[in-house]
Design brief:
three-stranded antiparallel β-sheet, ph1033 like fold, elongated, five-stranded antiparallel β-sheet
């Protein structure tokens, strides 16, 4: 919305009056639109023809009809208003807090107003490109395209001049996934020192560095939080400990079956027990860092989904952990038996290989072939779950 012509010095007082008075102003005919009948566009047209200055040519497309109709009927309490300054700048942001009012002025014009709580004002104006991808229109009031609006930037302007008491700055989070696989010196460079809490901007030992390309001084604000993720099964993290221990707090996130209650109810499988059982056996046979994460199962909707996860993710991962030692994989899945005959397990099958001629004298060590049960055979979870 515009408040007076920004390029006309004689109308500069209108903007100041609106800001000081806590309202916004609209021109277009000194006709009181308060009557409920003016919820109708046709009633506004008829009033303009009967009382307005340009009654002969008024229709639904006329500005004297469109602008009052929008201002009276389309604006709602709680709507935001951005005040333009020409086509390229904006100079105020507010929120509508009242209904339409008719307040005639002795000199005439700009008799229509609505109460506004002004959130941000800059009389010089700021480029519209800061919050909107288009130029402003010449219309006195219109609805802007929200798709073209930079909402986070608009929010920052709205909040920048509010002083409701002391408040913490808005937090920002930077997430670096698989940080242990990164070249830390290239990722952080000189900033590795600036990350320390006491060396942030505004802190007791504040430090700034000069950026090599721009030459600008740069520091890390206290409201920037950096989260680096890594897999503890990857032992390459050992090189990170010395460099990052003082800058980061290391927090271990182990698999947790309680996050699988919903998925378990959907699939009919006690996924929490399944995960706990597998991981206890992996820890016994390998170590605690090579456990199966609960995220594998959280998206399962059916028993078939659980089968897919076991077949294509969990069993191949176990095969990698145990270097194709299928006896240990079978032990984890509850399919291993002490005898040396064939096994029909819930997930794996074992057949006995015949010794080649000349070695079948009864002294050869037994050899086995392990195979994953086919999709047609399906998986049986009863032994793994102890039921």
């Amino acid at each position: 919305m515009s408040i007076g012509e920004a390029s006309n010095p004689e109308e500069a007082h209108l903007f100041e009056e609106a800001i000081q008075g806590g309202y916004t102003l609209l021109g277009f005919e000194d006709i009181d639109w308060s009557d409920e009948k003016f919820a109708s566009r046709q009633a506004i047209i008829e009033a303009c023809k009967a009382q307005g200055e340009h009654h002969a040519s008024v229709d639904a497309r006329s500005g004297v009809v469109q602008m009052p109709f929008k201002f009276r009927n389309e604006v709602k309490e709680g709507d935001l208003v951005i005040v333009s300054k020409g086509n390229l700048l904006f100079r105020a942001i507010g929120v509508f807090t009242g209904e339409y009012e008719f307040a005639p002025r002795p000199e005439g014009d700009y008799a229509h107003r609505r109460a506004v709580r002004w959130l941000w004002v800059d009389r010089d104006g700021v480029s519209v490109a800061e919050i909107y991808s288009r130029k402003f229109s010449q219309k006195s009031i219109y609805t802007i395209d929200v798709v073209e609006l930079n909402v986070p930037a608009l929010e920052r302007y709205m909040n920048s001049q509010q002083s409701d008491g002391p408040s913490e700055p808005e937090p920002f989070v930077l997430i670096i996934d698989e940080i242990n696989r990164a070249n830390i010196s290239k990722v952080f460079g000189e900033l590795i020192t600036l990350l320390e809490p006491d060396k942030r901007l505004g802190q007791p030992n504040e430090i700034k560095v000069r950026l090599p390309y721009s030459g600008d001084d740069f520091g890390v604000p206290s409201n920037l939080h950096i989260v680096g993720t890594m897999n503890t099964a990857d032992r390459s993290i050992a090189l990170l400990d010395t460099a990052l221990r003082r800058r980061f707090t290391f927090r271990e996130l182990m698999p947790d079956g309680k996050h699988l209650d919903d998925a378990g109810a959907r699939t009919g499988i006690d996924l929490a027990l399944l995960l706990t059982t597998i991981n206890e056996r992996v820890e016994y046979l390998y170590d605690r860092d090579h456990q199966i994460g609960h995220a594998y199962f959280t998206g399962c909707q059916t028993l078939a989904d659980v089968d897919e996860v076991m077949r294509h993710k969990v069993i191949p991962l176990l095969a990698e952990y145990f270097f194709e030692d299928w006896a240990k994989i079978a032990a984890v899945l509850g399919d291993l038996e002490t005898h040396e005959a064939t096994i029909e397990g819930g997930f794996l099958k074992r057949s006995v290989l015949k010794a080649p001629p000349g070695l079948d004298n009864g002294e050869a060590m037994p050899r086995f072939r392990w195979a994953v049960r086919s999709a047609a055979e399906g998986f049986d979870y009863s032994r793994l779950l102890g039921s």
